[in-house]
Amino acid sequence: MARPRILRLPLIGLFLALLAACASQPIGDARSQPAVDLERFMGTWYVIAHIPYFAERGHVASRQEYTLRGDGRIAVRYIHREGFSQPVEALESRAKVKGGTGNREWAQRFYGVIPAKLRILEVAPDYSWALIDYPGRDMGWIYGRAPTMDDALYQQLVMKMRDHGVNARQLVRVPQLPEQVGQPGFAEPEVP
Fold first, then answer.
1. Beta bridge partners of 144
2. How far apart are the C-alpha atoms of 7 and 121, rounded to whole Å?
3. pTM flag (> 0.70)
């Protein structure tokens, strides 16, 4: 009778290890997605929604502009306003795609020294929207190619963010147009 017990312990251990591995991967694991076509991803992406953090809180009309450079790196330009009556501001940075990630994981540098990470969770087949997060942090973004997004599509993308393991309850919409200020679900500008 001792032999079956001896075999049971390794099997139980293997089962628990497999269960833990499955539980640690979000349902919509980005690694299961097709590779991102960097050339198609380049261009302007409007920040439709984000989980607010100190560097972006209160911004309106915000967007990211990505440009593929000749050396394979990506020039990143974050453009925003503190309020619709305020001047346009821009922050320049650069990013490098991490090899072996299907062009989904980027290492970014602000001011040439401040490191940040970016992970592309999912992109629409026609590259009209993208879901982004900062791995290991509670930050996430919904990008769109146009400054506005249909409410039904937005709700679908919020659910997709949740499926990717992002705390989607913290997402707030970013006002891209003055008439969106004060609407339910939209963040308040830094300056009214």
1. 46, 129
2. 40
3. yes
